[in-house]
Amino acid sequence: MFKSKHKKDDSHHKKGKHTDEKKHEAKKEAKDDVKQDDFLKQIEELTNVEKELKGAEEKIKHVESRAEEMNNAYKRALADLENFRRRSAEEKADFVKYAASNLLLEILPCLDNFKKALEFVPKEQKKENWVEGLVQSVKFFEMTLEKQGVEEIKAVGKKLDPNFHEAVLQGPGEKDKVLEEMEKGYTYNGKVIKHSKVKVGDGGKN
């Protein structure tokens, strides 16, 4: 009778143990399922983050591309502005440089007339005060014009150059050599404002 009770207790103990093992396994499986679900969620989250990062990278590339385009456009606009300023400054300088040309063309004949007048002064009068005063005035006039960039064009003895000379007469002498200056020519800051009117040789002998 004692043995039978012991057997029952032992059988009951085994059944309880077996039940505990099942519960433990069930809990373990449940935990594993939870872990698997968490893992899958993490993968899904990482996938979403990766997609968001790719989208952000594309947006960044687009913004960088637009920024580069705008920077290039700014540089072009700045270069155009600098070119405009440079051209404007050059045009203004040219205008100032040559604006007085018309005025000079009115003044220079007066100087030429004074010089011609001095050529016809009788020798016995060249020492008179009024003549010497006129000579000094002409020299001062010439110096003032020279400081402003006005220069006489060299003509007599030179080869005829259409850029500086205008042949109005011909005579015996070396072909196309300037024999005589009929009217003086002038440059203003390197630009011809009046051509010299000259007599040139026609290649014939005297």
N/C terminus separation: 176 Å
CATH class of the largest domain: Mainly Beta
CATH topology of the largest domain: Nucleotide Exchange Factor Grpe, Chain A, domain 2
Shape descriptor reads: rod-shaped
Strand order of the largest sheet: 1-4-5
Mean pLDDT: 80
Describe this entry's structure for a reader.
The protein is an alpha+beta fold. The chain has two domains: 1-99; 100-201, Head domain of nucleotide exchange factor GrpE (Nucleotide Exchange Factor Grpe, Chain A, domain 2, Roll), CATH 2.30.22. The protein has three helices and six strands, in the order αααββββββ. It has helices at 2-98, 101-119, 129-147; strands at residues 150-152, 165-175, 178-183, 186-188, 191-194, 196-201. Strands 1-4-5 form a three-stranded antiparallel β-sheet. The chain has a three-stranded mixed β-sheet with strand order 2-6-3, with no helix packed on it. The N and C termini lie far apart (176 Å). The mean pLDDT is 80.
